[in-house]
Amino acid sequence: CYFAKDDVIAKIHHPEFNDAFTEYYGPYSKVSTINKSDLDPYFIAVYHENIRPLVDFANKHLKNIESGAIVKFQIKELWIEESQFQSKGINKGTALVSIAKNFGIDLSKTIAIGDGLWNDGPMIEVAGCGVAMKNAHKDIISKAQCVTDKDNNEDGVGDFLRKMFGL
Fold first, then answer.
1. 83: helix, coil or strand?
2. Which bin fits 6, alpha (ψ -120 to 50), beta or left (φ > 0)?
3. pTM of the predicted model, to two decimals?
4. Pairwise CA distance, residues 144 & 137, whole Å
5. Position 128 pLDDT exceeds 90
6. Per-residue pLDDT band at 127 (split at 50, 70, 90)
7. Of 23, 96, 110, 157, which is least surrounded by CB within 10 A?
């Protein structure tokens, strides 16, 4: 589900984080609903002008959750910070394994495309075909079987898939 409180929007998939978000930001409203998944991994991304207090709160009070790096980016004249939270031991790699198992797909038949070390590395390692974006971290590039010709800002994923599937 997506939740909103003032200028904060969170996509909450982790039952433990729901209470932390409420405790830190106060009551919030549901923006839209997504079908609940039966898959094991839990993952959320939170965006705010200052995410550090929420990351500190989660690290202190939620022992089963780990947070990723804080990424700062600009939208027009506003600077936004983003961090990802997930259950310890859960990452995009374990999510891909769980999804493949759920749908009966052999991992050797999967493609994973990414650029970030913390969240994409495990996924690229378990996929049948791990693809690094042109602008990916050097360690991601070294783990991948392929590297895109274009980066994220140049539609690198679309370009790679069009070439791979002859579209």
1. strand
2. left
3. 0.57
4. 11
5. yes
6. very high
7. 23
